[in-house]
Amino acid sequence: MRVTNTITIEDSEIDIRALRSQGPGGQNVNKVATAIQLRFDIRASSLPDICKKRLLALHDKRITKDGVIVIKAQQYRSQDKNRQDALDRLKAIVQGVMKTRKVRKATRPTSSSRENRLEGKARRSRIKRLRKKVDEE
Predict the structure, then answer these.
(1) Helices H / strands E in the chain, number of each
(2) What b/e sequence results for 93-129 when a residue is b if at least 16 CB atoms lie within 10 Å of its CB, and e otherwise?
(3) Structure pTM?
(4) pLDDT tens digits, residue range 75-98?
């Protein structure tokens, strides 16, 4: 499976099993194993090391403590569509990790934004001052 121009995942690294779907559906659910469980071991894969590190650093409930991505697809009634859905989700996870994020450049606040902030603080201060009890003399 081609993830990006430079990254591919071998089919032998992906473990796909057919399961029975959960939920309503009558006889079709009871008879046919249409749900798909995809398992992908990050550490044993042929992905680049940087990709492995980023995947293992993700706080995703689909990644186990052992570094295995587990995806369960049961949205569709056919096994083929669920298989493709699971593969697409795996591809999306790896692609999301490999995106390079733009480095934020620190900028200075504009003079008008500084003025607005100070004006808001002064307004709030004035409101709180008016709430105080007045000293009777």
Answers:
(1) 4, 3
(2) bbeebbeeeeeeeeeeeeeeeeeeeeeeeeeeeeeee
(3) 0.70
(4) 888 889 999 999 999 999 999 988
